[in-house]
Amino acid sequence: MGLTSWPSCISPACIFLAVFLIFSNMPCEAQLSPTFYADTCPTALTTIRTAVRTAVSRERRMAASLIRLHFHDCFVQGCDASILLDDSSSIQSEKNAPNNLNSVRGYEVIDNIKSKVESICPGVVSCADIVAVAARDASVAVSGPTWTVKLGRRDSTTSGLSLAATNLPSFRDSLDKLVSLFGSKGLSARDMVALSGSHTIGQARCVTFRDRIYNGTDIDAGFASTRRRRCPADNGNGDANLAPLELVTPNSFDNNYFKNLIQRKGLLQSDQVLFSGGSTDTIVNEYSKSPKTFRSDFASAMVKMGDIEPLTGSAGVIRKFCNVIN
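RESULT FIELD:
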């Protein structure tokens, strides 16, 4: 059938053929799916879950580290496991970015999981998906919420060291800066507050909260005094000393983080700005009163975060080792 004959062909069969030809020539974009590995690696999720449980049982802090690892991956180039790549002749590793260096943890846990998954399903499960599933399983391991992880991400062959400086939030950021940064990733202010609630577990280094406990004005005096005991005022002295991000139940996923903010006991400045007379005060109040709402919103926000610019279909690769390009 030539193009000149199309106008005279108005039968349902011709219309169907025309629509089919149009759509068959459009690019096909692969979609993430919770059942992506159902046939190709049916034991992948249980393998990941078991390994995460073991890691968290050995070190409770690892739960927070694995959640944060997923976050820091997705905010730079999307959820593509670019953060796992080591320096090489062609890679400037994101691990060396200021907000990652000596701070982001859990790489060895992901490497261990990848090794186990490769032994049962070689070349099938991406490092990016392992990072996403591990974050969910880490939350569950410390009594946090669960969510359905969509799968099918592929791994990047590049790293975004320069992007990390501008795409990752800082402990010094203002509320406006945080809202803008999360908004650029398709996440709302409510998503941002919910995701910040992951600071109900984990620890921070003295260097990240020193200025707040010595010079901050929006801080409970007793709380500041307590935190000064292991964080000397002098820069370079005790920089790596740790303090729990949440004072009351630092090893359990709950809503005490938000109660602390209302009492001006946020450890990081970027925590306290969520409750400082600004637009997110009402959300913090809501989460402080309703742990159920917080858990539900956190799970939803983690799903949205996992959707940030994934590589799918023929894009990217499946790395055999998460820290190097095959």
